[in-house]
Amino acid sequence: ETGVTQTPRHLVMGMTNKKSLKCEQHLGHNAMYWYKQSAKKPLELMFVYNFKEQTENNSVPSRFSPECPNSSHLFLHLHTLQPEDSALYLCASSQVGGLHEKLFFGSGTQLSVL
Amino acid sequence: AQSVAQPEDQVNVAEGNPLTVKCTYSVSGNPYLFWYVQYPNRGLQFLLKYITGDNLVKGSYGFEAEFNKSQTSFHLKKPSALVSDSALYFCAVRDRSNDMRFGAGTRLTVKP
Asked: Of B49, B94, B103, which is closest to A42 when you measure between CB atoms?
């Protein structure tokens, strides 16, 4: 148990659906992240939130919409996705305060877009 | 921009033999280097990190990594592999922008 919980574990959706991924951290951290993991590709950093403020958006398509209502919760809202968006979506958290800080990851949501 | 490269998609070793998983990095300024492991159906778990100091860093589960500035490498090593070490291993780098950038991962298979 890493202290970072993601739901759901698996999600299958059509291209016209709207769904949301949820992440919750119980570690008292002040930064949260969304990463996309595709086979044989580097993990892609999608969004970063520090103290609930979005500090990075790595040219992610607008069909992905993050929300961070407080420092413990992070959402990724999905709409009109494409099949190439199928991947494992990982949430992570850390305590911002130094470059030595490690990330704590959830188990991920395996997303399949049909 | 900082980046890491993991040149091997797959590494196979026999149980009891030493293992090495390779990583090279590119970063401006001093590098902050990390190794993470991912077991099936799990998120990434921290193994070890290099910030400053000794070039040989020891981490969890008997793993260690050697920082080599001249070769810009940070290879992960273990003297004697276990079947339970079979997993996906990720090298990562962080610089002053504070973002953690990961490699593509190397799948380690340890055969009995």
From this structure: B103
B54 contact partners, CB below 8 Å, separation of at least 6: none
Q: Which of A56, A100, A108 sits opposite B43 (nearest CB)?
A: A108
Q: Number of H helices and number of E strands within chain A?
A: 0, 11
Find the mean pLDDT for residues B30-47. 91
CA distances to A53, A95, B95 from B3, in Å: 25, 22, 10
| Residues A49-105 pLDDT 10s | 987 777 767 689 999 999 999 989 999 999 999 999 999 999 999 987 766 788 999
B41: its two tokens: 């159906």
Cβ-based contacts of A2 with chain B (< 8 Å): 43, 45
Report phi then psi at B85, rounded to 5.
Answer: -80, -10
- Structure letter (DSSP) for residue A103: P
Residues B94, A99: C-beta atoms closer than 8 Å: yes
- What tokens appear for B96 in the block? 């002053």
Q: How many CA atoms lie within 13 A of A103 on its CB side?
A: 32
Q: Give the gap in angstroms from C-alpha A12 to the nearest C-alpha of chain B.
A: 17
- Element spanning B95, H or E: none
How far is the C-alpha of A47 from the C-alpha of A49, rounded, in Å? 7
Question: Considering only CA atoms, which of A4, A9, A8 is closest in space to residue A31?
Answer: A4
- A105 and B32 in contact by Cβ < 8 A? no
